Amino acid sequence: MNDILDGLIAAFWLVVSLDPELIQISLRSLQVTITAVAIGCLIGVPFGAYLAVQRFRHRRLVISIINALMGLPPVVVGLMVYILLSRSGPFGVLGLLFTPTAMIIAQVIIVTPLITSIAHQAMRELWAEYHDLLISLNTTKWQRIKTLIWDGRRNLLTAGLAGFGRAIGEVGAIMIVGGNIDQVTRVLTTAIALETGKGDFALALGLGFVLIALSMIVNITIHSLSRTERDGRW
Amino acid sequence: MGDLLRLRDVVVQKRGRRVIGPIDLTLLDHGPTMVIGPNGSGKTSLLRVAYGIERLTSGTVDWMQDTPMGRAFVFQSPTVLRRSVADNLAYPLQILGWDKAAINDAVDDWLVKIGLEKQAKTPATRLSGGERQKLAIARALIRAPQVLFLDEPCANLDGHTTREIEAILTATAQAGTKLVMATHGMGQARRLATHTVFMLDGQVHESGGADMLNGAAQTPQLTAFLQGDIVT
């Protein structure tokens, strides 16, 4: 109980004193996560909509695989990205290992199936509603996808926020490919892991509370900006 | 004046069950055609298959005039896009690549015609059933189709709204648009029809001119149907 109280006090002082290291780590966490989620959305949302409107051979298999990939173990993703980016790996020449870019790559692999799957679910329901109308208007496949994404944008927010939630709290993969290097690749989750390892539970908990607060602030801000709960909005 | 489309040996099956067919039917390219018949007789399926929304199990549907962009369909339960009323009207024109000024002019014009100019910015999902149906008809008509299919557009609507919709449809038909419409209302069929198709048990039981509805029925089933009897 004391540890939790100490953690709350530590979090309070970290925030109130605008601790430069905390700010730097928090901003890096946000930068890596938001970039990964944005890339994940750019891939996952159109792909989810495409899966909703297009019938093709083995479509169900593709959907099953994407759904299965939602549970991809981050440590395994980290390991695979590590092997690919390590000096002896096929992309070693790019020198990306232990950089924020490597962390973003790992997170994109982790969040894209989740975003795709949720986007597909949302688009499938909307497509069932719009199917006859869009077919009768002789729309092209691309026009259908664009219409579904635009009209279902508020439902797609859930996909983006789910991706954000998964990415911001992720530690396994980014620890492996980022290396938790001070001033370079240290983010909130890896810092928490480090402080826990050092036995400084109060600081670890303090960082944890900051992480929770950050995640909530981003969620509330996005909901508020997109006016999801207002009467008559979609 | 000539033929609009021909259906030859058209059969639609779903999960092994025959929904309609075999159907041989020619629709003329002028005058409103009313498709009548009891519930489950295949009116909706006939319209969908003729329009090209429904897949054929066998047979052919040949459009004599190739007008894929000149066709529109109004469904029984109107689908509105999750956009404002004005944006719903603009959508078919955006699909065709019209410029913004022309779209705005057409949208303003149709908003007045259907009496929804004050609700232009209202989300379409907030409209009443009758308003939604008027919006769906206006959205179908905004790109001036040569052929308009309607699947019971006045089902469950009050008399006032039905009259408004009939006025729009009459004006549309007089302007030269071919109407093909399924309806349950015999009064409505009599008011609008120049041609009639009577569907029964998934097949075209009888077809001909509007006089079919006014004492010139050829079969006892149509006579009984027009008298309000239950026909199976």
Structure description:
The complex is a heterodimer of chains A (234) and B (232). Chain A has ten helices and no strands. Chain A is mostly helical and 234 residues long. Chain A has one domain (2-224): MetI-like fold, CATH 1.10.3720. With 232 residues, chain B is α/β, with parallel strands linked by helices. Chain B has two domains: 1-67 and 147-165 and 180-232, Rossmann fold; 81-145, no CATH class. Chain B has helices at 43-51, 85-96, 100-113, 129-141, 159-174, 186-192, 220-226, and strands at 3-14, 17-28, 33-36, 58-63, 71-74, 147-151, 178-182, 195-200, 203-209. Chain B has a six-stranded mixed beta sheet, with helices on both faces. In chain B, helix 5 (159-174) links the parallel strand 6 (147-151) and strand 7 (178-182). The radius of gyration of chain B is 18 Å and the shape is globular. Chain B starts with a strand and ends in a 6-residue tail after the last helix. The mean pLDDT of chain B is 92. Classes of the chains: A mainly alpha (234), B alpha/beta (232).
Give the structural class of chain A. mainly alpha
Total individual domains of chain A: 1
Name of the level-1 CATH class of the largest domain in chain B:
Alpha Beta
- Principal-axis shape of chain A equals globular
| Amino- and carboxy-terminal Cα gap of chain B | 35 Å
Give the % helix of chain A: over 70%
Tags for this model:
heterodimer; A: 234 residues; mainly alpha; MetI-like fold; 10 helices; globular; B: 232 residues; alpha/beta; three-stranded antiparallel beta sheet; 7 helices
Topology:
The complex is a heterodimer of chains A (234) and B (232).
Chain A lengths: L1 H15 L3 H34 L5 H11 L4 H12 L14 H37 L4 H11 L1 H16 L3 H7 L9 H11 L2 H26 L8
Helix pairs in contact in A: 1-10, 2-5, 2-6, 2-7, 3-5, 4-5, 4-8, 5-6, 5-7, 5-8, 7-10, 9-10
Chain B lengths: L2 E12 L2 E12 L4 E4 L6 H9 L6 E6 L7 E4 L10 H12 L3 H14 L15 H13 L5 E5 L7 H16 L3 E5 L3 H7 L2 E6 L2 E7 L10 H7 L6
Parallel strand pairs in B: 3-7, 3-8, 5-6, 6-7
Antiparallel strand pairs in B: 1-2, 1-4, 8-9
